[in-house]
User: Fold this.
Amino acid sequence: MPAAHIRADLPYRDIARVLAREQAGALPVVEAEDHVVGVVSESDLLAKVAFEASGHRPGPSGGCASAGCTARSGARPPPT
Assistant:
């Protein structure tokens, strides 16, 4: 019987289900060829949910595209 693992393309809600089913706090993440590419833990999932709940968006300035938003975030606009 193969060891429990998480596929790299599995959505995070499904990852939570696998961790619960396996009663594990963390499991290895494998790619299509079954090479281990990392580890995912309960705290990783909690951090993702907390980040999404905060309203932040990915990107260097939280997803702001305008120059005014970039300036307010403390980031410097790109050189011209």
User: Anything to note?
Assistant: The first strand starts at residue 6 and ends at 7. The two ends are 59 Å apart (CA to CA).
